[in-house]
Specification:
- The structure is a single chain.
- The chain has helices at 4-11, 16-38, 41-47, 52-80, 83-99, 106-133, 138-159, 162-180, 197-203, 205-231, 236-254, 262-280, 286-312, 318-375.
- With 376 residues, it is an all-alpha fold.
- Helix 10 packs across helix 14 (318-375) and helix 13 (286-312) crosses helix 14.
- The chain is globular and about 50 Å long.
- It starts with a helix and ends with a helix.
- Residues 1-15 have low confidence and may be disordered.
Length: 376
């Protein structure tokens, strides 16, 4: 499986560099749109009168919708083709981003974010599978997503107005849809029927579970992190700036990871994650937070790219594997914010950080047998 991307390139010699560049640009635009909208959602919820628990619930419904959509769409894309899901998903997502402008109450914001999550789920898993089958370097492909997050975070820091960010997300996603119209069908495996979802899940279940636990803690942190940073004296500019540091590091590091063992970088990503979340709990001052955000970017780069390569190289069902992987992240996005809100309500923001470090440590030990089995 490690040589599959080279085999795909041999089957598609014309316009390889251009195709990969366009795929990277699409990932950049989509990530820009997602980040530009999501970064101030907790603050918007608080402005509309939401409690910490309700802020977590807003994030949770977004994650549930994203989870169900990406799992089904990724699975069906193995038999129906990638591009139909990529294109329709982007088109519907652009409309969903624009719909956020009507969110003037907690209930409406919750409903609109569910629509956004469901729409994005249609495109994401199919886009990952399409990129892999087109011969893209998955580390570099992922780095363009981080670059989009950088620009989204910086746009949030500079613009500051939530309504303007929603409009910008709509424009970027619409541009991504228009770009996808230039894509050609990539070489792929033909499945007369959708693959067996359970068999694909069972093949790398330890990896999925380890990713789930680490990212569950992370999403619990993200939903309250803007509020936590604000409590430490950070204004909107500094919140956006600190987010951008994380994404800048991801963009640089992800581009260099595919040449290393995916299992080693996955392990280091888990280990660093535990240390980073523990460090967040004792954060004090801007310099300290800058250092934490730097290592957060390294940890997520290693964990994300390592896990993605493991599951995509494990079999031919790229759409299904990508859908399960994306759904694992989105399940965390559904449950994590709810837990983050509940823990913050009872034990404060630092309690959420300790929770994330603890379950990240559990995930690290769960993944060790999978590494040993592959190495043996």
């Amino acid at each position: 499986m490690r040589k599959q991307s080279e085999q795909v390139l041999a089957a598609n010699p014309g316009g390889e560099w251009s195709c990969r560049w366009l795929i990277g640009l699409l990932n950049f635009l989509l990530s820009f749109a997602i980040q530009g909208s999501i970064i101030f959602i907790p603050l918007l919820g608080a402005q509309l009168g939401a409690s910490d628990f309700q802020v977590g619930l807003i994030g949770s419904v977004y994650g549930v919708a994203f989870l169900s959509s990406s799992l089904i769409s990724g699975w069906k894309s193995d038999s129906l083709g990638r591009l139909v899901f990529v294109r329709w998903g982007l088109l519907v997502s652009s409309a969903a981003f624009a719909l956020q402008l009507v969110a003037h109450s907690v209930i409406v914001l919750m409903a609109v974010r569910a629509v956004v999550g469901f729409s994005l789920g249609i495109a994401t898993a199919a886009t990952i599978a399409y990129a892999f089958e087109s011969g893209a370097n998955m580390g570099k492909f992922s780095s363009y997503g981080s670059l989009g997050w950088i620009f989204g975070a910086m746009a949030a820091a500079i613009i500051g107005k939530i309504e303007m960010l929603f409009r910008l997300s709509f424009i970027c996603c619409l541009l991504a849809f228009l770009l996808s119209l230039a894509f050609k069908k990539a070489p792929s495996y033909d499945f007369p029927n959708p693959p067996n979802l359970w068999q694909v899940l069972r093949r790398d279940y330890r990896i999925y579970l380890a990713v789930f636990l680490r990212h569950l803690g992370a999403t619990a942190v993200w939903i309250i992190l803007p509020l936590y940073l604000a409590s430490l004296g950070m204004d909107k500019f500094w919140i956006g700036f600190l987010w951008a540091i994380n994404f800048v590091v991801q963009f640089v590091v992800m581009r260099e990871l595919e040449r290393f063992s995916e299992y080693k970088i996955f392990f280091y990503g888990q280990l660093l994650s535990v240390l980073v979340f523990a460090a967040f709990a004792v954060a004090a001052g801007r310099f300290y937070l800058i250092v934490i955000m730097f290592f957060l970017g390294v940890s997520w780069s290693c964990l994300y790219v390592g896990a993605l390569l493991i599951v995509l190289r494990g079999g031919e069902e790229k759409g299904t594997a990508g859908g399960i992987f994306q759904s694992t992240l989105n399940l965390c996005s559904a449950v994590g914010p709810l837990l983050g809100g509940l823990i913050a309500q009872g034990w404060g923001y630092r309690g959420v950080m300790y929770f994330a470090a603890a379950i990240g440590l559990a995930g690290m030990f769960i993944a060790v047998p999978a590494k040993k089995k592959t190495s043996g």
